Amino acid sequence: MTKCFSFTASRNWCLKSSFSSSGLRSTVTDLGDGTVIHCWVPKTRKETRPDLLLLHGFGANAMWQWGPDILPRFVRHFNVYVPDLVFFGDSYTTRGDRSESFQAQCVYRVMERNSVRRMRVVGLSYGGFVAYSLAAQFKEAVERVVICCAGVCLEERDLAEGLFVVKDLEEAADMLVPQTPAKMKELMRLTFVKPPVKTPNCILVDFIDEMNKEHIEEKRELINALAKGRKLSEIPKIPQPTMIIWGDKDQVFPLELGYRLKRHLGDNADLVVLKNTGHAYIVEKTKEFYKHLKLFLLPQVSPIPSPLSTTTIAATPTTTTATTNGHDPHHLNNNSPVTVTT
């Protein structure tokens, strides 16, 4: 029997309306190689504002992760671009490349088509991998980078060594591309410190049917491509000023990976740890998240942080305040500060 109402489809329509009312328009760019990218771009680009690229993580399309609580704040200060990455939303490819490097190249070509030459980039979870690759490949185009809870410095061996709650890539794919209400609930438990209470199965089934039934195998391949054979020694160091933001209770990409990335980049990066929040801190602590983004992305208007709102600790081996799955995340090798917000 055909269902007469979809909560997910209704919310998706509302998000489209919200993006449009925020001054963005929907575009589709055919890159000419079998790849098509959907992207929200400014209806009117203002030359006096910096260009900001927002890259989403796994889940639904980009709208669900960047609006409506985040996007309206950004459009006051930036020309905002919000693409659907390949195999999400209305973006797809017939090519076989599943790397974050390929995703970054696609996004860069879309920005070129929109006459954007210099940009600031925020990448959330999987989008953080793409943002990092974008910064590594197109150094002159990327001014500043924000990596949000993205395990860029993970290694394939971390799975076998117990850093993650999953033991292999197949289990990770089952979790991140859920196909049943039970898997959806498991993902929410891992993503939130306080998961939504008693979400009805009918709502979860509706979400899966509307948002998670296309490109299932391709998305699983994206996950495999992230970790297969990945070694820290082969990850380039990006030169741009970088902010790393992490939830201290993240169970998808444990906090250890945030500190590992900080060590990898050294003094070129600042690390902000949001306390009592998990992988979904963009939902759990939206205002706190946005505050740090604005301070970093618009440094010319940055006030001195209030000592009542942040605590800065020296990043030395003696500053251990938490552990993740038996790993000590605070054993840094340089003396640049780490900001822990309450």
End-to-end separation: 49 Å
Helix content: 25-40%
**CATH class membership:** Alpha Beta
Radius of gyration: 19 Å
Helix count, DSSP H or I runs of 4 or more residues: 13
H/E series: HEEEHHEEHEHEHHHHHEHEHHEE
How many discrete structural domains?
1
Please provide the count of β strands: 11
Region (Disordered): 318-342
Domain AB hydrolase-1: 52-289
Protein name: AB hydrolase-1 domain-containing protein
InterPro entries: AB_hydrolase_1 (IPR000073), AB_hydrolase_fold (IPR029058), Meta-cleavage_hydrolase (IPR052370)
Account of the 3D structure:
This protein is of the alpha/beta class and 342 residues long. The protein has a single domain (19-155, 231-341), classed as Alpha/Beta hydrolase fold, catalytic domain (Rossmann fold, 3-Layer(aba) Sandwich), CATH 3.40.50.1820. It has helices at residues 7-21, 62-66, 71-74, 100-113, 126-137, 157-160, 169-176, 181-191, 201-211, 216-227, 255-265, 281-284, 286-297, and strands at 24-30, 35-42, 51-55, 79-83, 92-93, 119-124, 142-148, 242-247, 269-274, 310-314, 337-341. Strands 1, 2, 3, 4, 5, 6, 7, 8, 9, 10 and 11 form an eleven-stranded mixed sheet that branches. Helix 4 crosses helix 5 (126-137), helix 7 (169-176) crosses helix 10 and helix 8 packs across helix 9. The model is unreliable at 301-335 (pLDDT under 50).
Quick recap:
The protein is built from 13 helices and eleven strands. It has 342 residues and is of the alpha/beta class.
SSE map:
Elements: H1 7-21, E1 24-30, E2 35-42, E3 51-55, H2 62-66, H3 71-74, E4 79-83, E5 92-93, H4 100-113, E6 119-124, H5 126-137, E7 142-148, H6 157-160, H7 169-176, H8 181-191, H9 201-211, H10 216-227, E8 242-247, H11 255-265, E9 269-274, H12 281-284, H13 286-297, E10 310-314, E11 337-341
Parallel strand pairs: 3-4, 3-6, 6-7, 7-8, 8-9, 9-11
Antiparallel strand pairs: 1-2, 2-4, 2-5, 10-11
